[in-house]
Recover the amino acids of this structure.
């Protein structure tokens, strides 16, 4: 097998190979839409010392120079380390058992070999080769490189994702026990999270202990005056006051005289600070070590555990050093000290202390932090993007946001985003009376509560009667045009995967991800828990969010996008650091929120919970001209959207069209006012009645053969999301002419709007 990388050291030779490297490299270039020599595919390599020589397929690589990357996510790499000198033991120095267990040392062949697959961990990686020479000397050689993403630009997109997450949920990006790390810089103000403290202490541990030992061996002291009482023959220096006392008590040989004696003391401000710092660091280290051992027993390897025990023992030895017995308690930084800033040993302890008490900023810096894997980061970022898009479309800063989402400190010492109701973000508007009216809500990872016969989700009154279902993001739009508080539910799943690229250059989501959305829609049901009311499907549509590329016009012709209009299942490309990436998703959300009326949405979906609440069945629509008539006041009633209107037509005669009207087949009624439409009513009742049996003015003469069609209209719903009147083409309803027309669907009716 050809070696991709070859590192020649005076003690060993390292070979790195990968069977699928060329295919992976081409795929990364295709996914990022860059040339194969693009900066997006570059990495730099660093190693200890200047005696090693690195080559890539025979080409020499300078230390720190940017060259095409070898390492990518979710790819298997084989490592072969052949030692030139006799070694008795060798391993990969890492706290991760899943990495160390992948290597084996053959002492007879003097070879350390193994494999690493970085999975979804991207960032900087340090391969530390630890080996012990036959003479007993133990060496550690560190080789650092970038592990790049295949589907995103690691150098720019990852920074964008982290910045967006940090802006919403500080510290949520951080993780522990990962195979890669990310650089960060410290800030002098702010909190010091446990994981930050731990990572910083790992870097300064040795120099901190060394500096404390220097101070203990050669501490700063000061001259202090102690008050003592001595007999006259023990006095070494007489002051005028003592001379007067000697004369006064010269007959008393046993009299004790008060005087002051200068001595050297280590009980100084600086030593008190040192005592406090050492004790605090020891207690903090022991506390975090116990949490790591309790929560990562299967991830930690034996050498890592031994190293923690050695560090704990060393810190405890310093805390209980006899030197500190004569040093008092530290009472705070209430004074400046040049010794702390410049003194040998003291200055190092002070600098390390400031570092351990700082906050952090996930920008380029000299420190290292481990992050969550890119799939998890992408999922959280998609939730933030959907939430922000919904807020923007609802009115931006004008909308009232009740952000109930929060982070939870998990059993380790990193944070995770709360799920279900704890992650809910509710958007509302405030009425003129000061009341809040809910418009929408976004939920992250709705939780399930297992029951005997069903699994309840965080979506109100929604259950899975088979197995638990866990969509990533839930969007619920609250409507009041068909029923107060009626909610339309849509699901989104963030998938950090790309299935393939079609002939038009459009990335395609994985098939199993699309199939998952079908399963979600079929598995989640609305159950009102009221006797006599059947369960109905809850989910209207399901959509995949994936880091795909492609021009909007090409994506619109792709099957995964066109299927949204046909079956309400599909996908949207969504990439960070790309302003146009969210355009299609934003346009779709805009149509849901503002352009598509509830009636049209529900009419396009069959067997949904809304069919029993709002539209009894999909049926024909009758649009009728309504004139401004003071006698029956229909005009004002329709303008004011009264909930119930008893409407009757003109007199039926053999010569007019009303006699031919099959009024029983209509389910919906649309009033046309001045050539414009706004509302659609359900026809609750329809019959033929004599005019004299209908309301009329007292004394009005009514013919016995005057027969009318009567309709009871109920539950008005807006046809247009903007809730405004929209004009129809004048050819349908000419001005000042009464008439009616039949339509088979809301979509057909709206196709005649201007």
């Amino acid at each position: 097998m050809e070696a991709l990388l070859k590192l020649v050291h005076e003690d060993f030779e390292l070979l790195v190979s990968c069977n699928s490297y060329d295919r992976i490299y081409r795929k990364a270039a295709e996914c990022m839409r860059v040339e194969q020599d693009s900066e997006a595919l570059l990495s730099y390599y660093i190693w200890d010392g200047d005696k090693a020589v690195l080559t890539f397929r025979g080409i020499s690589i300078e230390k720190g120079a940017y060259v095409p990357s070898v390492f990518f996510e979710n790819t298997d790499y084989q490592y072969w380390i052949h030692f030139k000198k006799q070694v008795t033991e060798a391993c990969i120095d890492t706290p991760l058992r899943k990495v160390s267990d992948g290597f084996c040392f053959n002492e007879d062949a003097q070879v350390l070999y193994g494999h690493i697959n970085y999975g979804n961990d991207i960032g900087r990686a340090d391969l530390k080769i630890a080996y012990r020479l036959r003479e007993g000397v133990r060496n550690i050689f560190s080789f650092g490189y970038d592990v790049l993403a295949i589907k995103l630009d690691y150098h720019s997109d990852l920074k964008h994702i982290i910045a967006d997450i940090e802006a919403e949920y500080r510290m949520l990006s951080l993780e522990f026990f990962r195979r890669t790390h990310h650089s960060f810089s410290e800030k002098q103000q702010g909190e010091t999270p446990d994981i930050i403290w731990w990572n910083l202490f790992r870097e300064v541990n040795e120099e901190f202990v060394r500096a404390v030992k220097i101070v203990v061996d050669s501490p700063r002291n000061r001259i202090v005056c102690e008050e003592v009482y001595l007999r006259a023959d023990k006095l070494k220096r007489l002051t005028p006051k003592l001379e007067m006392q000697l004369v006064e008590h010269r007959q008393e040989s046993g009299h004790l005289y008060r005087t002051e004696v200068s001595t050297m003391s280590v009980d100084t401000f600086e030593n008190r600070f040192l005592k406090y710092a050492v004790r605090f660091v020891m207690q903090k280290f022991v506390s975090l070590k116990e949490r790591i051992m309790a929560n990562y027993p299967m991830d930690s390897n034996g050498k890592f555990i031994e190293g923690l025990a050695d560090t704990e023992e060393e810190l405890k030895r310093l805390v209980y050093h006899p030197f500190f017995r004569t040093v008092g308690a530290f009472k705070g930084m209430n004074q400046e000290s040049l010794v702390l800033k410049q003194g040998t040993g003291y200055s190092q302890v002070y600098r390390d202390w400031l570092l351990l008490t700082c906050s952090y900023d996930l920008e380029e810096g000299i420190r290292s932090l481990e992050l969550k894997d890119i799939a998890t980061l992408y999922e959280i970022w998609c939730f933030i993007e959907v939430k922000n898009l919904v807020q923007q479309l609802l009115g931006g800063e004008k909308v009232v946001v009740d952000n109930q989402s929060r982070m939870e400190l998990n059993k380790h010492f990193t944070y995770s985003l709360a799920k279900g109701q704890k992650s809910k973000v509710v958007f509302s508007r405030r009425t003129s009376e000061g009341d809040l009216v809910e418009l929408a809500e976004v939920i992250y990872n709705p939780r399930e509560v297992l029951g005997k016969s069903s699994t309840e989700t965080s979506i109100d009154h929604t259950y899975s009667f088979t197995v638990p279902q866990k969509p990533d993001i839930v969007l619920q739009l609250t409507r009041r045009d068909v029923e107060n508080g009626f909610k339309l539910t849509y699901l989104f799943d963030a998938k950090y995967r790309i299935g393939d690229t079609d002939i038009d250059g459009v990335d395609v989501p994985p098939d199993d991800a699309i199939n998952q959305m079908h399963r979600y829609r079929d598995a989640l049901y609305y159950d009102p828990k009221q006797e006599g009311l059947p369960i109905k499907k809850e989910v209207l549509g399901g959509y995949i969010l994936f880091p795909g590329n492609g021009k909007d016009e090409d994506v619109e012709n792709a099957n995964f996008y066109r299927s949204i209009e046909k079956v309400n299942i599909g996908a949207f490309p969504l990439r960070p650091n790309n302003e146009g990436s969210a355009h299609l998703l934003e346009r779709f959300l805009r149509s849901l929120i503002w352009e598509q009326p509830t009636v049209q949405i529900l009419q396009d979906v069959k067997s949904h919970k809304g069919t029993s609440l709002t539209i009894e069945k999909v049926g024909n629509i009758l649009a009728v001209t309504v004139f401004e008539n003071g006698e029956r006041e229909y005009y004002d009633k329709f303008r004011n959207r009264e909930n119930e209107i008893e409407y009757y037509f003109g007199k039926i005669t053999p010569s007019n069209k009303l006699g031919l009207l099959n009024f029983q087949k209509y389910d919906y009624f649309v009033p046309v006012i001045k050539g414009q439409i706004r509302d659609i009513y359900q026809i609750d009742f329809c019959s033929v009645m004599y005019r004299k049996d209908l309301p009329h003015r007292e004394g009005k003469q009514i013919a016995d053969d005057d027969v009318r069609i009567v309709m009871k209209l109920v539950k008005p719903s807006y046809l247009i999301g903007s809730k405004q009147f929209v004009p129809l083409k004048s050819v349908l309803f000419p001005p000042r002419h009464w008439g009616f027309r039949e339509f088979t669907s809301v979509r057909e009716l709206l196709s005649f709007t201007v």
